[in-house]
Design goal:
Radius of gyration: 22 Å
Number of domains: 2
Order of helices and strands: HHHHHHHEHEHHEHHHHEHHH
Distance between the termini: 13 Å
Largest sheet: 2 strands, antiparallel
CATH architecture of the largest domain: Orthogonal Bundle
Structural class: mainly alpha
Strand content: under 5%
């Protein structure tokens, strides 16, 4: 690994070298989000209002949580086509148990999420143990769990959420005290600082190149500014949404597992080269089974958010373009379709891109077909960038 020269100049030269070597990171997504915001604000005049931005922060929670699971599956170099139907089945199970049969609301939520874990274990077993391709297994799951969703709903076309339900709070509850949003911003900023300091200490102890103190300060300052601006914006509307808090919590937990634990490193190893990982002593089957279980669990949780947003469970919840949007979010956010490369925060960035486009086009009264075409174009651009990046890294000898 090449060392970095000290000072701002060294950082800029290192940044340029990484870009030329195909290590684009999240740069294209961030630039894309800025362009989206500028264009829609210029066209509508109220895209950047606190109300619109607060609504976006709520709408991204359900698909974003599901996209986290897809990121994990993509890191293995596989795909899960069943997350949409699993979301619908989860919502149906919760609604029938809680609303129709009077089961305790929290217990019904836990049972619905556990059902997602069981479904994922089934998918993982057939893929990892039996050897059926993940595409086929999850395609069968897509069809089968959609049928199970309709069967669970029975004669009920839609089951509305009661006003006192915990699920309703997933999309309707806000922490109205302004200190809540600012406290979360402070916790995120301090947590990021501590994570950077810990990482640099470990790199220094291992004799690896480290970031300068100035770079750490700049990174933390940028995160803090973004966090506190977001907190201020949310407080201008209704406050901090519970949906956003849960989504960020899922991101932080899964990101820690992926980047800071042995299990997370095993996921990358299996996705990079399964046979090499097996020869290194990694239980490839266990990793694959548990990843699919996690993906279905997160899909089940995301389904409850979708039900909260829709106002209830229905036989069609989870159908339509939800699956494609969730997969697109993971890819657009920067997770490679080829496995072994990506990061959990891709789910947040990609979902932000898709929801921002959807919200902006809705404000412009554009038809749904236009939304599909634009989202499809953005997805294609993301995949092209991923492919070009891999080819550039291969040429530069980085893969």
């Amino acid at each position: 690994m090449l060392g970095r020269e000290a000072g701002l100049g060294g950082y800029l030269r290192d940044f340029t070298r990484r870009i030329r070597g195909g290590e684009l990171g999240s740069l294209p997504v961030v630039i894309g989000l800025i362009i989206i915001a500028v264009v829609f604000e210029a066209e509508t005049g109220h895209f950047m209002t606190p109300r619109t931005l607060s609504n976006i922060s709520v709408y991204i929670a359900g698909p974003g949580i599901m996209a986290v699971g897809i990121v994990l599956v993509l890191l293995l170099g596989e795909i899960d086509l069943s997350v949409g139907s699993m979301a619908g089945l989860s919502a149906a199970l919760w609604a029938v148990l809680s609303v129709s049969h009077g089961v305790n609301d929290l217990l019904a939520i836990l049972l619905a999420i556990c059902a997602g874990a069981c479904v994922g274990l089934v998918h993982g077993f057939f893929f990892a143990r039996v050897g059926v391709p993940a595409f086929v297994v999850t395609l069968a799951g897509f069809l089968g769990w959609s049928g199970a969703q309709i069967w669970v709903m029975g004669e009920e076309g839609t089951i509305n959420i009661p006003s006192d339900s915990l699920v309703r709070d997933f999309s309707n509850f806000y922490f109205t005290d302004i200190s809540a949003a600012y406290s979360l911003a402070a916790v995120l900023s301090i947590g990021y600082l501590l994570a950077l300091v810990r990482q640099e200490r470990r790199r220094r102890a291992a004799g690896l190149p480290t970031r300068t103190r100035g770079e750490i300060v700049v990174r933390v300052a940028l995160v803090a500014v973004a966090a506190f601006v977001a907190a201020y914006t949310l407080n201008q509307h209704r406050g901090l949404p519970l949906a956003l808090v849960i989504f960020l919590g899922v991101l932080l937990i899964v990101d820690f597992v992926v980047r800071r634990t042995t299990y997370g490193r095993q996921i990358f190893a299996v996705g990079g080269n399964a046979e090499a990982a097996r020869r290194a002593g990694i239980n490839v089957e266990r990793v694959r089974i548990t990843v699919f279980a996690l993906a279905s669990t997160l899909a089940a949780l995301g389904g409850l958010f979708q039900a909260a947003e829709a106002g209830g469970a229905s036989k069609s919840l989870g159908s339509g373009n939800l699956l494609m949007n969730v997969i697109a979010a993971a890819v657009i956010g920067g997770t490679s379709l080829f496995g072994g490369r990506g990061w959990v925060w891709s789910a947040l960035l990609g979902t932000l891109v898709i929801q921002s486009i959807t919200t902006g086009l809705n404000l412009m009264n554009m038809s749904s077909e236009i939304q599909y075409m634009i989202t499809g174009a953005v997805l294609l651009i993301a995949v092209v960038l991923d492919s070009v990046s891999r080819q550039t890294q291969r040429t530069a000898g980085r893969t």
